[in-house]
Amino acid sequence: MTLKLGVPSKGRLMDKTFDWFAGHGVNIRRTGSEREYSGAVEGIAGVELVLLSAGEIPRELAAGRIHLGVTGSDLVQERIADWETRVVALEPMGFGYADLVIAVPRCWADVDTLDDLDAAAAAFRAAHGHRLRIATKYHRLVRDFLREAGVADYQLVDSQGATEGTVKNLTAEAIADITSTGETLRANHLKILSDGLIHRSQATLFKARAANWDGAAHDSFRALAARLGLDA
Ligand SMILES: Nc1ncnc2c1ncn2[C@@H]1O[C@H](COP(=O)(O)OP(=O)(O)OP(=O)(O)O)[C@@H](O)[C@H]1O
Ligand SMILES: O=P(O)(O)OC[C@H]1O[C@H](OP(=O)(O)OP(=O)(O)O)[C@H](O)[C@@H]1O
After folding, report:
1. Ligand 2 pocket, 194 CB below 6 A?
2. CB within 8 Å of 46: residues ≥ 6 apart
3. Considering the chain, what percentage of its residues have pLDDT values greater than 90?
4. pLDDT tens track for 20-77
5. CA distance 39 to 193
6. Is the CB of 200 under 6 A from ligand 1?
7. Tell me, which fold does domain 3-96+203-228 have in CATH?
8. Contact 76/58 with Cβ under 8 angstroms?
């Protein structure tokens, strides 16, 4: 079977993914017109490039429809239940860094830690009759993290973008989102809890356990891994 390699076809991880492979001696390139989603891997037989958005790659890996895929570790851990049973993180790639953090309004002088948040959440519920709202698109990671931390008196509200704006818009009291430079948090008068780092993400090359690893796919993988300098 052809070895299918899923790479981001657009978005912030695309160019650096292509550069990373080139820097490791493997030229992958888009083929066809600029708008056509097709691609090729030069010099290694039996490898097919599958162009997908970074957000779709976890699903394709989990289903075994691609053998290998590049995407952010945050997206894999958020979108695949028990991700380690479905994929193997082969290689962190050294770009696409972003931290998933919990942040609260900067003016909350008494809230700097998760314990403070827990106390504030209880007080909030007593005062308002509903739970403190945390806006995020990272539901699984946030729930798991807060459960471990013993914070229970909150509710998640879904936010698929402009999450930092939800506090100003009064649809949430706190947020959990990705930050890289910190500019968006600062501009929206939010501060990160001192122990509020949920996940440190970077672009990573993943291997799908459920893909069809027949002899041909395995041979192509060994050739690719050797070229990339990975243990296979
Ligand atoms: N400043 C940042 N903001 C958001 N994501 C970032 C940032 N820096 C790196 N990333 C990472 O980039 C990845 C998301 O990339 P991108 O938004 O291009 O993909 P996507 O979710 O497929 O996008 P799309 O909305 O176009 O489908 C995530 O793994 C995320 O951690
Ligand atoms: O720390 P910073 O460098 O300011 O970057 C963080 C921001 O970038 C991302 O948003 P994106 O641009 O992907 O838009 P989104 O709101 O649609 O997610 C992320 O969701 C933060 O809002």
Report:
1. no
2. 2, 3, 216, 217, 219, 220
3. 91
4. 999 999 999 888 777 777 778 888 989 999 999 999 999 999 999 999 999 999 999 9
5. 43
6. no
7. D-Maltodextrin-Binding Protein; domain 2 (3.40.190)
8. yes
Work out the angle at residue 8's Cα, subtended by the Cα atoms of residues 59 and 227, and round it to the nearest 5 degrees: 100
Q: Which ligand is closest to the CA of 100, given by its number?
A: 1
- Atom in ligand 1 nearest the alpha carbon of residue 184: 1
Closest ligand 2 atom to residue 183 Cα is 4
pTM equals: 0.95
Is 3-96+203-228's fold the same as 98-201's? yes
Q: Does domain 98-201 have CATH number 2.40.128.100?
A: no
Domain ranges of the chain: 3-96+203-228, 98-201
ipTM for this model? 0.94
Residue with the two structure tokens 């890996």: 61
Nearest C-alpha to atom 3 of ligand 2 is from which residue? 181
Is there a contact between 203 and 74 (Cβ–Cβ < 8 Å)? no
Which ligand has the nearest atom to the CA of 96?
Answer: 1
